[in-house]
């Protein structure tokens, strides 16, 4: 089995205007692992994910997917995105389309999957995520947790090599957070390679294989959950975690 990282960032730098948002970021994500990005709002977590999916163009450095430099200008971004699933905190479901049509649109239009095959896979995923009876519903008939699970199914429908999750519980009522995080736990058990930006510190501690603390666009600290949460080396990490504990979020 290959030990080559699924995703590698090498000295990635990103600026908006005159502000440096990512500052020489290095990151490796091994196959079948979960990497959690933690840090205060504005630390660069979401920007890192958007750069990894080529939604933002980096200013310097390189991003590799399975060893291929996907930031090479000769690479077609749409081809790369077919190998990466993304779920944002906003569900981004088409309100005029049924759940089934939302899920099968990209496989049919982008991947060229026959309708019957796309619908069969969508049905299997919906059943697996507890949404088996919702294929014909429209998004506004679903709860927030159900809509977010549909968004996850849509990301999985293209059989991605890598799944990026950007604060996927941020827009949910507290009672719905658990059902969505339960789906992520199941995906980890299945061996899905994931990078997630999250404010759910307890979840990151329990599920992640690698935790990266971002501060001011820098990966200030990284390690196992036991290392980062239990024995943080950097004073800035310790201050951040103290505030989390005081707020009752860890």
From TrEMBL:
Keyword Membrane among UniProt keywords? yes
Cellular location of this protein? Answer: Cell membrane
**Which Gene3D superfamilies does the record match to this protein?**
P-loop containing nucleotide triphosphate hydrolases
Q: Which InterPro entries match?
A: AAA+_ATPase (IPR003593), ABC_ATPase_HisP-typ (IPR030679), ABC_transporter-like_ATP-bd (IPR003439), ABC_transporter-like_CS (IPR017871), MetN_ABC_transporter-like (IPR050086), P-loop_NTPase (IPR027417)
* Record-annotated ABC transporter domain positions: 7-241
**How does this protein sit in the membrane?**
Peripheral membrane protein
Position of the signal peptide: none
Q: Which Pfam families match?
A: ABC_tran
Identify a single GO molecular function assigned to this protein: ATP binding
Gene Ontology cellular component annotations, sorted alphabetically: plasma membrane
Q: Give the residues annotated as coiled coil.
A: none
Record has Nucleotide-binding as a keyword: yes
Alphabetically list the UniProt keywords.
Amino-acid transport, ATP-binding, Cell membrane, Membrane, Nucleotide-binding, Transport
List, alphabetically, the PROSITE patterns matched.
Answer: ABC_TRANSPORTER_1 (PS00211), ABC_TRANSPORTER_2 (PS50893)
Q: Which family does it belong to?
A: Belongs to the ABC transporter superfamily.
Q: Which protein, by its recorded name, is this? A: Peptide ABC transporter ATP-binding protein
**Source species of the chain:** Streptosporangium nondiastaticum
């Amino acid at each position: 089995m290959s030990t080559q990282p699924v995703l590698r960032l090498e000295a990635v730098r990103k600026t908006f205007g005159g502000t440096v948002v990512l500052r020489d970021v290095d990151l490796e994500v091994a196959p079948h692992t979960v990497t959690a990005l933690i840090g205060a709002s504005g630390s660069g977590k979401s920007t890192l994910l958007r750069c990894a999916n080529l939604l933002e163009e980096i200013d310097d450095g390189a991003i590799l997917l399975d060893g291929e430099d996907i930031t090479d200008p000769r690479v077609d971004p749409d081809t790369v995105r077919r190998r990466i699933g993304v779920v944002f905190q906003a569900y981004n479901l088409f309100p005029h389309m049924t759940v089934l049509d939302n899920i099968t649109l990209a496989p049919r239009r982008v991947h060229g999957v026959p309708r019957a095959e796309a619908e069969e896979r969508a049905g299997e995923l919906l059943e697996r995520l507890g949404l088996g009876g919702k294929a014909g519903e429209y998004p506004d008939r679903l709860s927030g947790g159900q809509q977010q699970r549909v968004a996850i199914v849509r990301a999985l429908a293209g059989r991605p090599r890598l799944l990026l999750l950007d604060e996927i519980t941020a827009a949910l009522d507290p009672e719905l957070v658990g059902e969505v995080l339960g789906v992520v736990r199941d995906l980890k058990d299945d061996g899905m390679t994931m990078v997630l930006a999250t404010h759910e510190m307890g979840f990151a501690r329990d599920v992640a294989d690698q935790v990266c603390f971002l501060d001011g666009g820098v990966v200030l600290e990284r390690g196992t959950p036991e290392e980062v949460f239990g024995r943080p080396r950097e004073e800035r990490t310790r201050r951040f975690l103290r505030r989390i504990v005081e707020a009752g979020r860890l």
